[in-house]
TrEMBL record:
The keyword Plastid does not apply. This is Phosphoribosylaminoimidazole-succinocarboxamide synthase. GO terms for molecular function: ATP binding; phosphoribosylaminoimidazolesuccinocarboxamide synthase activity. Keywords: ATP-binding, Ligase, Nucleotide-binding, Purine biosynthesis. Its EC number is 6.3.2.6. The gene is purC.
Length: 233
């Protein structure tokens, strides 16, 4: 298979079908735009099975994505899309970047979810962008941005419901979208504890990558516990 793209956490390969790609989840983990970097055996497998399970559940709730099928320990087939170079972040509760940026109190629950856009550009440190910036850079029209927002909020509703059943608060998450061959905007990339903040409703324990970012626990144990909870509901 021809390697099409290699990112920090995944490699993307072409397949015999020009409309289908194979994603290989890597055992690498980074934080702070690559400042912290480690190799954790088993991580790729966990991200693959968790992301597949979450995409399947989203499908069941009427939210389509690029996901087609899991094909191996750390690989899955996906529909080929052109990734829109924006990270779409939805926040239900204040944590992370927004606490540092706006001085809101960590743990503050927002009356309505916030949707933010960040430009996917490592060399610029993924800056936050406005809708006008998105248009200026040619990454979408007003109606595209409205569609991204609407889709992100729909994902939020379904994911919040899933996490509630697992006794977890969906604090925030990041998703990405791509355009398929027909130009439809489709949910893409991955959804996993790498891309979400999840707090245990009783103990506030983190079920996400913050255990790695903040050195507060074992990433593998945390992701395993998350997967078992997900399979248990
Ligand atoms: O760092 P920040 O508070 O902006 O992160 C918000 C959410 O987006 C978190 O759940 C984090 O895991 C996710 N995120 C991500 N990839 C990034 C930036 C943030 O998955 N590059």
């Amino acid at each position: 298979m021809t390697l099409l793209y290699e990112g920090k956490a995944k490699s993307v390969y072409e397949t015999d079908d020009k409309n289908v790609l194979s994603i290989e989840y890597k055992d690498e983990v980074t934080a702070g735009n690559g400042e912290k970097h480690d190799f954790i055996p088993g991580k790729g497998h966990l991200n693959n099975i968790i992301s597949a399970a979450l995409f399947e559940r989203l499908h069941a709730f009427g939210i389509p994505s690029h996901f087609i099928a899991k094909t191996g320990e750390a690989s899955q087939l996906v529909k080929r899309v052109d990734i829109i170079p924006l990270e779409v972040v939805v926040r239900n509760t204040a944590a992370g970047n927004i606490v540092k940026r706006l001085g809101v109190t960590e743990g503050e629950v927002f009356e309505t979810p916030l949707v933010e856009f960040y430009l996917k550009e490592d060399s610029l440190n993924d800056p936050i962008v406005t809708e006008d910036h998105i248009k200026l850079l040619g990454h979408g029209t007003d109606s595209n941005v409205a569609e991204l927002k609407e889709k992100a909020l729909a994902v939020n509703e379904v994911l919040t419901g899933i996490m509630n059943k697992m006794n977890l608060t969906l604090v925030d998450f990041k998703i990405e979208f791509g355009r398929d061959v027909e130009g439809n905007i489709l949910l893409a990339d991955e959804i996993s504890p790498d891309t979400c903040r999840l707090w245990d409703k009783d103990t506030n324990e983190n079920f996400d990558k913050d255990v790695y970012r903040n050195d507060t626990g074992s990433l593998i144990d945390t992701y395993n516990k998350f997967y078992n909870k997900l399979e248990g509901i």
